[in-house]
Design goal:
There is one protein chain. The protein is mostly helical. The protein contains 18 helices and eight strands. The chain has helices spanning about 5-20, 35, 40-50, 65-70, 90, 105-120, 130-155, 185-205, 220-235, 240-250, 260-265, 300, 315-320, 365-380, 385-395, 405-420, 425-430, 465-470; strands spanning about 75, 280-285, 310-315, 330-335, 340-345, 360-365, 435, 450. The strands form four sheets. A two-stranded antiparallel ribbon has the order 1-3. Strands 2-6 form a two-stranded antiparallel ribbon. The radius of gyration is 21 Å and the shape is globular. Residues about 1-20, about 25-30 and about 290-295 have low confidence and may be disordered.
Length: about 475
């Protein structure tokens, strides 16, 4: 973890490479941490640079989506096809170790460190509301980082009755190279996430939009904060809060459901810049040419027939869609030249027409999830809303039959609607369901089924982190 404590490196690397495409103006390339953190302008640019971590290959840029889809019945590796380049075997076969695990740890704690530096240096640097807006952004980014970390490296919240099992370190102050934080209980990690988001909601200007960016949906807003709160509360089983926060976003009228025409052939997923009122996107990660040194060896390449194509879509998923369901058009296909097999991929990352393979904005929060969150919360006891009505909103806009207002119905609708957006693995874990897949051609062992409660729901913390921090306990089973 030592590299995450060097602010000058963060400024020079994060701001120079990570946010050039996110911003409409070039960021400061390199300066001392003291100088950078001494002015509002510097703090504002560090905040903007913090977003860049989300677009990296270990996070939403590639691995967070790919790993968590290839572990489920949404993903398939077409072994022996001309699109089998040898990538993703371990994720598809759910074969982890402390040397073969998600590298999210580094990027997420990198983002947390940057956010903490801004929060710690705001006092007296500008007008109160301007500073509050920066703080709210950093609180959201810190909360999202902790949330994705605890989802990746710990068992789900519901694993123990009081969520007392090991989570991840909770970092809310600026750390030094000598600090060796221990893991906190999952309950404390979630508690800090909620605390950060509630404070962010309270202090942000409801009309705030970060200036100087190309995509307003790639910046923190009050609606992104409320949408993430809805999801976090859902994971905690706090049903009324999950429903109420989903309602805040729905009732804001800032977002509109995509229609069948919008969704056909994934048109709405390939837009470059989102505008207010243009659709479902509440928060997304902006990704474009020049991002992280100009590499596009990421999610677009892995789901493209024009590059690697190892991350295929599973027949188990394809079979869920009825003939008239527009979501059946959210896939593209090609024939393997080695065995004539037809290979399918998600079309949600076909890109923006920048390059081949292309760059895609990665959606993190969107309106349809809010309806699904609320429906699930109501079925579990939340009051004041109608689950069937919410499920009907989804179905009516997709050309499909509405699911029954049951847990099975909402779970099925979540898989169909949110496929290849990194939901299914976590949904299965938090609801204590087995992961099973029929269309599986991987190695014998754990890849075909992972039972509820298995140690595999928590990925191992990387070995290098244990090497530098002896206070980190190991996840059982690795």
């Amino acid at each position: 973890m030592k590299r995450f404590y060097i602010l000058t490196l963060i400024i020079s690397l994060g701001m120079a490479t990570g946010c050039q495409d996110f911003l409409t103006e070039d960021p400061v390339m390199s300066q001392s941490d003291v100088l950078t953190l001494s002015t509002y302008e510097g703090l504002n640019k560090v905040t903007a640079a913090t977003y860049a971590n989300l677009a990296g290959s270990s996070w939403y840029g590639t691995d967070f989506i790919i790993i968590n889809e290839m572990k489920t019945s949404n993903g398939k590796k077409y072994i022996g096809s001309s699109f089998d380049t040898g990538r993703l075997n371990d994720w598809y076969n759910i074969n982890y170790s402390e040397t073969m695990t998600s590298s999210l740890w580094g990027s997420a704690y990198f983002a947390i460190y940057m956010a903490n530096n801004v929060i710690a240096n705001l006092e007296g640097k500008g007008a109160e509301q301007d500073l509050n807006n920066l703080k709210a952004e950093c609180l959201f980014l810190r909360a999202l980082s902790h949330f994705d970390l605890v989802r990746t490296y710990a068992q789900p919240y519901s694993y123990t009755a009081d969520a007392s099992h090991d989570g991840v370190p909770v970092i809310t102050t600026v750390q030094t190279a000598e600090d060796k934080p221990a893991r906190e209980p999952v309950s404390k990690v979630y508690g800090q996430i909620v605390t950060d988001l509630l404070e962010a909601e309270e202090i942000i200007d409801p009309g705030y939009v970060r200036s100087g960016i190309k995509d307003i949906r790639a910046s923190v807003s009050i609606y992104a904060i409320q949408a993430l709160l809805s999801r976090v509360y859902l994971y905690m089983g706090k049903w009324q809060e999950a429903a109420d926060y989903a309602t805040k976003v729905i009732d804001s009228k800032e977002f509109t459901m995509w229609t069948q025409d919008d969704m056909k052939d994934a048109k709405c997923f390939c837009e470059d810049v989102r505008k207010a009122g243009s659709g479902e996107v509440i928060f997304e990660v902006y990704h474009g040419s020049g991002e992280y040194g100009g590499t596009n060896e990421g999610i677009c390449s892995l789901t493209s027939s024009e590059k690697y194509g190892d991350a295929g879509a599973c027949k188990d998923l394809m079979d869920l869609y009825s003939e008239n369901d527009v979501r059946s058009t959210l896939f593209h296909s090609a024939a393997s030249t080695t065995n004539s097999e037809t290979v399918y991929w998600t079309a949600k990352y076909l890109g923006k027409g920048i390059a081949k393979p292309d760059y895609s904005n990665i959606i993190v929060l969107r309106l349809s999830e809010m309806y699904l969150n609320r429906a699930e919360a109501v079925i579990n006891g939340a009051k004041g809303y109608n689950a069937l009505d919410d499920l009907k909103v989804i179905a009516d806009n997709r050309g499909a039959e509405a699911q029954a207002a049951t847990l099975a119905g909402v779970y099925l609708e979540r898989q169909k609607e949110l496929a290849w957006e990194a939901h299914l693995w976590f949904d299965l874990g938090r609801t204590k369901r087995n992961m099973t897949r029929n269309d599986f051609v991987g190695a014998e062992g754990t890849g075909k089924e992972v039972k509820a409660g298995s140690h595999l729901w928590a990925m191992p913390i990387p070995e290098r982190e244990h090497n530098v921090n002896g206070n980190l306990t190991h996840n059982p089973g690795y």
